[in-house]
RNA sequence: GGUUCGGUAGCUCAGCUGGAUAGAGCGUCAUCCUUCUAAGAUGAGGGCCAUUGGUUCGAAUCCAAUCCGAAUCACCA
């Protein structure tokens, strides 16, 4: 059993037998003891003191003695300072812990396995991926891996927004301005090629509107009357009517985009078990509306449009079917939610979508619950904040975005440059070097985007390149490479039983022991940053350990073997933790 | 205006189910490579935790009000 859980339960049991009070183990607060006090773990006594009407010193002493008796061989001593009960855990406990821990069994299997869908990425086929998509992809992929590490079954999905007026805009612009150019004729990546025409559309549109406005038309009217906009609208209509010429163009241009996306996804390591296309799902939800009307969850207005009244839940009225009988975004999404649940029989469904859609998902979940859809309670919106530039928001139509491909390439180029300057990998083959540059460049980028709380918006300054020192991916990768370098020299065979433990060795053991709890926390909060922070702290601690104590030239063989074991476990924990962030750790760098 | 989310060091961020003297990284300054990889370590400096009031033995953390910022409140997706 986990030591902290053990301490909590033991505290509750001791309080019960000492004072006949019932306290839930969860209510016992166990902290790591602050370095300036003696001990390893601290129990805060104030909570019980009040209830018992005794002084903290008396409760502390009685509880401390009882705990020591209850956990023989684990608690060696205790002290009380101002209402804090500090326990010192025996070295033997930690030595046994280290000796018995297996590098491939760091995370205990959970008992309640669930089937969870994670939907992420959600690209539009009118533009290439940008920095915001990267945050989405890394978050989605990572949370899926964290849940898998815990033992859950995870289905990664992607919904591609491949239809609509915005797609028609780039199609129109291509017809008008491309002269039959293609990605291969211009040597451009397909998604970038198409994205350029989306920008061209907006330029032409703006110019046309400006012309109309200077001719005396109001801005609002000009935006509706611009011929290029009307052409896009007309195209959407043709698309919906199944016009073959339009559909062919649409298929052709989308194919270019997918070719480009594939390259990017492969590079950044995103993968999906199933991809849904909005062109296939946008009509979903029709029967659902009927069902909702029958269940009296929805109601119909005079103009025959269908609505749901959520005012009792503190929200608004929401339309679910237009008067012309077509379904809206919300209805499609409910339909898709139902489809996904049926297809995969999921217990829970996580949507990785930006926080501008918080309201949408709140409503989505509520409607699914009211319709009594299975697993409606298992809908979670992993809401993340925008990535902004120092100048403000990124806008695709204005071309002020940090492009995903460009950024990835730049990170890899920087890692190449730095690696060459340091000159530590002269024995690598060209293939190994390419792989290493990718590993480090992507590691820096992924760590940068995953180390902060997902729900907070973050600012990215393209002028300052992403760091390779300190709280970064490469720092952790470096620590791993360092450990592996030592282990290559010392070997990894451990046979002697250790018998003493220095403070730094103990600190490492304690840090290692908290990994499963960190994974749990990350999974419960859908927050990979918890793992990023933990891994950084572990690496930092190891580096201090490394600077203070020698492994290869330890004081004795027993010490050497103990430290080899600590090295093995630290490397394994770093590797595992980084792997769920999507970051590989090199053997040498 | 309603709802939701933010405001912590010069910058980027932890800490938020209340607990001991508020922590990292970057940047600045100073030390440490003839001993396991210096993408490292050690130290210094840097704070009215937005403001005010409340609850409490104890508040960055909880409550209320105020100020500042963002998102949303589409028959767009």
Task: Describe the model.
This protein is α/β, with parallel strands linked by helices and 589 residues long. Among the domains are: 3-89, Gyrase A, domain 2 (2-Layer Sandwich), CATH 3.30.1360; 164-277, no CATH class; 407-580, Orthogonal Bundle (Isoleucyl-tRNA Synthetase, Domain 1). It is built from 22 helices and 14 strands. It has helices spanning 3-19, 46-52, 56-70, 91-100, 131-150, 165-177, 183-186, 190-214, 219-225, 227-241, 244-268, 278-281, 286-294, 329-344, 358-370, 404-422, 430-450, 473-490, 503-513, 515-525, 529-548, 557-580; strands at 30-32, 41-44, 75-81, 84-89, 115-119, 153-160, 274-277, 299-300, 306-309, 317-321, 348-354, 379-384, 387-388, 458-459. The protein has a five-stranded parallel sheet, sandwiched between helices. Strands 1-2-4-3 form a four-stranded antiparallel sheet. Strands 8-9-10 form a three-stranded antiparallel sheet. β11, α15 (358-370) and β12 form a beta-alpha-beta unit. α18 (473-490) packs antiparallel against α22 and α19 packs parallel to α22 (557-580). The chain is globular, with a radius of gyration of 29 Å. The protein starts with a helix and ends in a 9-residue tail after the last helix. It binds one RNA strand of 77 nucleotides through α2, α14, α15, α16 and β14.
Key words describing this protein structure:
four-stranded antiparallel β-sheet, RNA-binding, Gyrase A, domain 2, Isoleucyl-tRNA Synthetase, Domain 1, 589 residues, 22 helices
